[in-house]
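INFO  loader      accepted 1 record
INFO  loader      residues=233
INFO  predictor   begin
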Amino acid sequence: MARKDRKQLFQLQNRSLISMTNPKSPIAEQFRTIRTNIQFSSVDEELQTMIVTSSGPGEGKSTTTANLAVVFAQQGKRVLLVDADLRKPTVHYTFRLENHIGLSNVLTRQSTLEEAVQTTSQDKLWILSSGPIPPNPSEILGSKGMQAMIEQAKNEYDVIIFDTPPVLAVTDAQVLSNLTDGVVLVVSSRNTEIDAAKKAKELLESAKAKILGVVLNNKKAQDSQYYYYYGGK
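INFO  predictor   done
INFO  writer      dumping tokens
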């Protein structure tokens, strides 16, 4: 990789993982606020597993997912971030990890969860990357193997967060929403159309998902470039 490309990748990573690289920034504080609101959204029920999704691509879903995982780990929770986007995975790029073995290997019993999980530079945060892209992502995500993997992960981690594909693109997020405790929907103030956001919400509700709230991304604020807002449905 050329020096210029490495520099651009490093800068991208720093922006993507701002909760890790600049934890005192206003944006990092917004992620901690999101974390708090997620925890308060389910006071009477244990919230251990959640998915983060969006209506369409380019709305900041994966960046939000990565930073949420970081701030939960910074709180002292044992966190597993799972790249369940088996179509266009990005988590391994964000954390600069290998992706030879990951979720798809675990679900097809080619690897164990312990073998596939990778450590990060953030204490108490582990990554399960996507692994090789399979020909049938939706079927694999809704399999008994996924249910078994989640149950095993719940015994080893305090919080498991899944990065999933956009709701309107494929059914993967709907499939996983049935297996987890809640869903966080990311929308972009610049890109997301209101009808698309409503349709995504309807599809998740039709799948019996518990929508924990919505993160409003890319809203300009005076004290920072981006503003992340969390609100219940």
